[in-house]
Amino acid sequence: MSAENEYMNNEEIAGVIAPDEDYDENQIQVLEGLEPVRKRPGMYIGSTGPRGLHHLVYEIVDNAIDEALAGFCSEIRVNILPGDVIEVDDNGRGIPTGIHPKEGISAATVVYTILHAGGKFGGGGYKVAGGLHGVGASVVNALSEWLELTVKDGEHIHYQKFNNGGHYDEQMKIIGDTTETGTNVKFKADPLIFTETTVYDYETLLKRLREQAFLNAGVKIVFSDLRDKDNIQSETLHYEGGIRQFVEHIHKVKGYEPLSDKVIYLSGVKDDMTAEVALMWNDSYNEDVRSFANNIHTTDGGSHETGFRNALTKVINEYGKKFNLIKDNQEKLIGDDVREGITAIISVKLTNCEFEGQTKGRLGNPEARPLVENMVYDKLMNFLEENPAISRAILEKTQNAQKAREAAKKARETARRKSAMDSTSLPGKLFDCYDRDTELTELYIVEGDSAGGTAKGGRNARYQAVLPLWGKMLNVEKARIDKVYSNEKLMPVVAALGTSIGEDFNIEKLRYGKIVIMSDADVDGFHIRTLMLTFFFRYMRELINAGRIYIAQPPLFKVAKRKGKKETVKYAFSDEERDMYVAQFNEEGDGTVNIQRYKGLGEMDPEQLWETTLNPETRTMLKVNIEDAAKADEIFTILMGDKVEPRKDFIEKNAGYVQNLDF
Fold first, then answer.
1. pLDDT at 647
2. Which of 145, 447, 477, 482 is an active site residue?
3. Of 246-255, 484-493, 641-650, minimum mean pLDDT range
4. What 3-state DSSP class applies to 258?
5. Are 421 and 500 in contact (CB under 8 A)?
6. Residue 662 a catalytic site member
7. Which of 215, 320, 474, 580 would disulfide-bridge 326, Cβ 3.0–4.6 Å?
8. Could you tell me the domains of the chain?
């Protein structure tokens, strides 16, 4: 396409999008009440997919948690009712129900129908609140088919129902008397908004609620799934040990072997801020540091996490020097060394939380850094001095990490000298493509030379490259980075991509826009796929975050009907699809139906592989996303780590969800 034609196309597209009328005051819309939320729900909850759906529950639960933070709530009940109705019930003070002086309606109605209304914007309702930067109850109401609000104030029971996104016919009314206090919310997500699904995932909600229970020691959260009366699930989440038990839980789930028999717990207070840290080292090579501010998971860190990291590195180095465990002529330990194998929870609570970014992923309060940094430095140093046996185990762990880092550096330099890391020196078995446009090019990582040859013959050589894998695949979950540099199966992948790994990783040098893992649809193929995904997750996670990693979906069956010399072929990707095609052919009659089960990619000829798996117009590929990095990290550790018991528990728990398992 010429530059001129491209310009004309863009102009035509712009013409379709742009309105014909003049842009003046008549085009300015004013959306009243909760209309803006229904008009642009993604602006308020991120998406209208499963993540946004579950976010509705978090918002209502967070309000109850804020009551607990204020010291007025000890128990929260969360139920998934039949029809995927959510019920959240707390024994807090209850939302105020008196007439609002400005709005002239019940204050509770104001909270549920007016954006940015609530008790967290000043006035002393809450000293610390996680929901201040949340979208709030009004947004949940706006995105619900219906919502019922019941408030107990110690004297009366108040009730109001909202329909179709926050509309109501009746004002809040008294429906009974009580001596109890609390708030009960029931709502049904609107299927007109959540068109993908309105079905809640029990495990997703359980993980979030358990996290909240850990972060608020002593608060009891009872979570129940009551959708199926024959399979009711319920769990009481109540942890007096708070974040100490959080660390123990992570170790238990991942099967880590801790270096000591107790979690290190540190806490501090300054003015109206509090900070607590729980940490423990284990036998793994992975770092798991999770930070929270007012119960909100700050996935991108922030000032509190920076303070922790700085203090940790400083303390370990100074302790090692003080007790001659680190010699004067030794290189200092760096942050990566001291955090290898660490699990840590950092939780701060502030009166005025300042988050950076729309998703509240990073804490911006500068005053949180010195609070955490000074507290960790002083109290961790005291702990190490009082527990010399644990301290020596930690120092040994960190020094081994330092040695491995130095070995990795030497291996990297050796690899550079051999040009293995140089993007201009490509693997000998790589069948490269001609095009260099990374938005067009694709690299297929294929299991075995046979399948690689088939893929080479079936590909479009202009933009599709093929790299057959050979040799032993390294499980990087059980190895440090220095072992990666010498692995004959992984380094050709690194060289082909051109990005390098570790300290040298640079996504700007990526040679292909799509990296596609293409393995056989059998146990060995799934294992290889998992090993490759583990490698990308640990050492090239930015490729996953950028949406560059894909999984090819070759067919499982070829269903062919032959009538004379004519053959009609359908490719099936599941048992159900196979049976459907067989039934169709049999119904048509006049022919013989044959089914071929593909045990490997090498069984297909190049034309079949192109038609089913390589052709962008007919293929199906899965994009690898990280919806929840912590959950992904947990699963990789369980499935690919050394410990058998957690893997066995995971398989037993999830066996019922397996589909298309074919030995």
1. 60
2. 447
3. 641-650
4. strand
5. yes
6. no
7. 320
8. 38-235 (3.30.565.10), 243-409 (3.30.230.10), 427-554+624-657 (3.40.50.670)
